[in-house]
Design goal:
The chain is mostly helical. It has two helices and two strands. The chain is globular.
């Protein structure tokens, strides 16, 4: 469990994103919520869904 991840989950949850349980563990829903938030802010990056890390990978490939 990470205090920083828990803070990020609280922030995203407060803005209406589904992070799953606010438990300080980065799982697929937290990664998806973070990626959605980045997209809403105009950033075009994908986010790693590997548990225990939050890694930006990008920019995302544009669909053809």
């Amino acid at each position: 469990m990470s205090a920083e991840m828990k803070n990020l989950q609280r922030l995203l949850h407060g803005k209406g994103y589904d992070v799953g349980p606010i438990d300080g563990i980065q799982g697929p829903r937290t990664a998806s919520a973070f990626q959605d938030w980045l997209g809403d802010k105009g950033f075009d990056f994908s986010v790693s869904t590997a548990p225990g890390e939050l890694v930006l990978r990008g920019p995302r490939a544009k669909p053809m």
